[in-house]
């Protein structure tokens, strides 16, 4: 049994093919931003409150506007592609664990099971949208998400092209035949054709994704769905302000886990500026680098409403321990809140923070 979320990585590495491990673990370029996410989070210090009279910590997350119908903690399972690479049940297993843990699960456009089957698990589901070259497919995906009962659309806005992920290039990484982009019209794609010195997944992204997506496209999407829109991949406060003007319900401050622009600032370093820019006009969530309950508390103290957790849950998926990992995270958060004198999440937002 793992003692921390980080333990799942070594457990997964022992059972996964090396190229699959690299696909999940790797970042873009020299992986500077990948490392920076952890360095920056570790530098955030908290001043605990004492004599607070707290007998128990309530980790429950209650959000208006229908995005979250109550969650056991301020955590969302991040949208992550091709989860059958890690386990034959892939998205179905992780979505089931999220439902049992009482947290939302974000379904990826590139999920390896159809979104309807994942949403049918029965928990709270969001649908993550990559903007495709075929706008008709975009509209169809959004309609399918609505019909399947998803409660929000998460538009990833930081992938005009895929970052150059050198581990995948060196491995000539390609998807195995039984792992497909199940939501797309032609699920067997360039992503399955290995070419020496190239990433087949990057080749598929280049052919399928629209690089010139703009704010006008988001305005068009706003007219096509009544679901809340959450924009994932914002670091600049000016973009956050524009998102609010567009009518976004939420913003995910994210550098895509260090997998897009290498040299981008850490997500946690960008958080305060975005929180100030939106001035409580929308939810702000933090993604990239979260590895513990203390990290969740750090994010809340800096003004985030919640966090997205990605890689640690993929590592747990590889060893059939998704539920265990989510319960471990909830326990860590409760412990951190007790030690900081926080009875509930609102109290966490009043903690004083510093930098080591």
TrEMBL record:
Q: What is this protein called?
A: Alpha-hydroxy acid oxidase
- Asked whether the keyword tRNA-binding is assigned, the reply is no
Q: Which CDD domains does its entry note?
A: alpha_hydroxyacid_oxid_FMN
Domain named FMN hydroxy acid dehydrogenase is located at 1-356
A Pfam family annotated for this UniProt entry: FMN_dh
Q: Is Oxidoreductase there in the keyword field? A: yes
Family classification: Belongs to the FMN-dependent alpha-hydroxy acid dehydrogenase family.
Q: Which residues cross the membrane?
A: none
Keywords of this entry: Flavoprotein, FMN, Oxidoreductase
List cofactor names only.
Answer: FMN
Q: Do you know which SUPFAM superfamilies this protein is assigned to?
A: FMN-linked oxidoreductases (SSF51395)
PANTHER family associated with the record: 2-HYDROXYACID OXIDASE 1, S -2-HYDROXY-ACID OXIDASE-RELATED
Q: Which InterPro entries match?
A: Aldolase_TIM, Alpha-hydoxy_acid_DH_FMN, FMN-dep_DH, FMN_HAD, FMN_hydac_DH_AS
